[in-house]
Design goal:
By secondary structure, the protein is α/β, with parallel strands linked by helices. It folds into two domains: about 1-40 and about 250-295 and about 345-480, Beta Barrel (Lyase, Ornithine Decarboxylase, Chain A, domain 1); about 45-245 and about 300-345, Alanine racemase (TIM Barrel), CATH 3.20.20. About 30% of the residues lie in helices and about 20% in strands. The chain has twelve helices and 22 strands. The protein has helices spanning about 15-20, 25-35, 40-60, 75-80, 95-100, 115-125, 135-145, 185-190, 210-230, 250-265, 305-315, 325-330; strands spanning about 35-40, 65-70, 85-90, 110, 130, 155-160, 180, 195-205, 235-240, 280-285, 290, 315, 320-325, 335, 350-360, 365-370, 390, 405-410, 425-430, 440, 465-470, 475-480. The protein is globular, with a radius of gyration of 24 Å. The structure holds pyridoxal-5'-phosphate (PLP).
Length: about 500
């Protein structure tokens, strides 16, 4: 292999690390349940929820952490979370039914996203808090409550289009929520519908990593709450949505080195680092670099609960420059958060068996084919660049050609399709994989393991197992067989 390997090693917590170091558990699991296979770790989501809760406590805030269910379909994770004090944010009729069936009482559920009449009815019938997207949706909800003589429904008004005071910031366009400029007529509608809905508060969700944008939105929400109170309404909560993110990579220097090398490769200053010269959004126009890197910032020093902490510490320029967290406490507002990806940090991995390792006639990278499709390991789809961990089949790897040397590989999926690349970049591995080895893609629980899963070519959708530690050993069961009583709360 020419040049130095450009590793992007995953960040591994103690649970995931311990599971990966257990080939005696992982190989029989895939032999029994097939490849690809998803494994989730229910104990971890409970630990992550506690970390969010600790930030609330640190800021003397009350409120609720609602897990954004859409990020993973797992029953085991949801049921384990039901045994904590956290809540769940559902975005479809099926997710609402799943949450109710997992043991979440309606006071621990919020309903967001686009809603069909059935979803809206079940939410209203069970008195779940509904995050209302628009005036039209509010009217529709009020009509349902009247038609079926249901109890008053608690609502959050989802707002969007926030602008920082003084500066014209081009705020991100969203198809969701009511522009904050139009919140007046929305509040009038709430007053008109006061026999059917009760204003619980206001909400936003911004799909961005930018703390500035989120601080501006939270500040805008505080002003909207003030406006609602002036009208005699009694809102009590601000829902700051999700988007706290997670750090996938262990080493920031590896990330810097990789992205610089990718830039050089796009400019033609070094050999390509991707299949077919793909540039991840970058391109070479006559020797000048154009475009922008369309990747998830895979190394993030501040993410998850720490990101929430930073947001709460940010000042609100239009409200006396006071920190946002202090302003929430002062007004006795509850803080709602809806972390999806962040609550799933270290909660699972996707295993795929190596079917074939082929050398190219021209030399160069090895072509490695896995028993999985790109949609089974959707890290690439989400712009997350991170190396798989090879779990060897044999205890002592036979020393084949270049056995102990680093290798560069291309990872292909199992579909009869040129585009079925598990990742478009060249992946560097510390040693040559062999057929029968497993490749473990870690931290796939957030959006990457089942959101995009299909049964294309009649290939089976990956099964899911739940794993936990008991008396120092890893135990497992099928995801839908897991209940909080199954694991006796885990080893720690
Ligand atoms: C998707 C979504 C979330 C979760 O976003 P993450 O980036 O996974 O934290 C939260 N709230 C709403 C309304 C969403 O649509």
């Amino acid at each position: 292999m020419g040049g130095h390997p450009l590793y992007l090693e995953p960040r591994l917590g103690s649970r995931l690390g311990s599971l990966l170091a257990s080939p005696d558990v992982l190989h029989p699991l895939v032999d029994a349940l097939g490849s690809p296979l998803n494994v989730v770790i229910p104990e971890q989501i409970a630990a992550n929820a506690e970390r969010f809760r600790a930030v609330y406590t640190g800021h003397h805030l009350s409120g609720q952490v609602y897990f954004a269910h859409k990020a993973n379909r797992s029953s085991a994770l949801l049921r384990r979370l039901a045994a904590t004090d956290a809540g769940v944010d559902v975005a479809s009729l099926g997710e609402l039914q799943h949450a109710l069936g997992a043991g979440f009482t309606p006071d621990r559920i919020t309903a967001t996203g686009p809603k069909n009449p059935e979803f809206l009815w079940l939410a209203a019938r069970t008195s779940v808090t509904v995050s209302v997207d628009s005036r039209e949706e509010l009217d529709q909800l009020a009509a349902l409550v009247r038609a079926f003589t249901l109890p008053r429904v608690p609502v959050l008004l989802r707002l969007s289009g926030f602008e920082a005071a003084g500066v014209r910031v081009l705020s991100r366009r969203s198809r969701f929520g009511t522009p904050v400029r139009a919140s007046g007529p929305l509040l009038e509608a709430v007053e008109r519908h006061r026999d059917t809905v009760e204003l619980a508060g206001v909400a936003y969700h911004l799909d961005t990593t930018s703390l500035d944008e989120k601080a501006t939105a939270l500040e805008g929400c505080l002003r909207a709450l003030e406006e609602a109170r002036k009208r005699g309404l009694r809102p009590r909560a601000v829902d700051v949505g999700g988007g706290f993110g997670l750090g996938y990579l262990a080493d920031g220097e590896q990330w810097e080195r990789y992205t610089s090398a990718l830039t050089e490769a796009v400019l033609g200053n070094r050999p390509p680092l991707t299949w077919g010269g793909h540039g991840y959004g970058l391109r070479n126009e006559g020797g000048t670099l154009r475009g922008s890197l369309g990747l998830y910032p895979a190394h993030r020093p501040v993410s998850g609960a720490r990101y929430l902490d930073e947001l709460l510490t940010r000042p609100a320029p239009s409200l006396g420059g006071r920190p946002l967290g202090e302003l929430l406490v002062e007004h006795l507002y509850d803080l709602y958060t809806e972390p999806g990806r962040a609550l799933l940090d270290q909660c699972g991995l996707t295993l795929a068996k190596v079917l074939e390792v082929r050398e190219q006639e021209s030399g160069g990278e090895l072509l490695v084919r896995l028993a999985a499709k790109a949609s089974d390991v959707a890290l690439e789809e989400h712009g997350v660049l991170m190396d798989p961990v090879v779990v060897p089949r044999a205890r002592r790897q036979p020393v084949s050609a270049g056995g102990g040397e680093p290798v560069a590989v291309h990872l292909f999926g199992s579909l009869c399709l040129e585009a079925d690349l598990i990742t478009r970049r060249t992946v560097f591995l510390p040693r040559r994989p062999e057929p029968g080895d497993l490749m473990a893609f870690v931290n796939t629980a957030g959006y990457c393991m089942d959101f995009h899963a299909t049964a294309a070519q009649r290939q089976p959708v990956a099964r899911k197992a739940a794993a936990w530690q008991e008396d120092g050993a890893w135990r497992w069961c099928l995801d839908d067989q897991y209940w909080p009583t199954t694991s006796r709360g885990g080893a720690q």
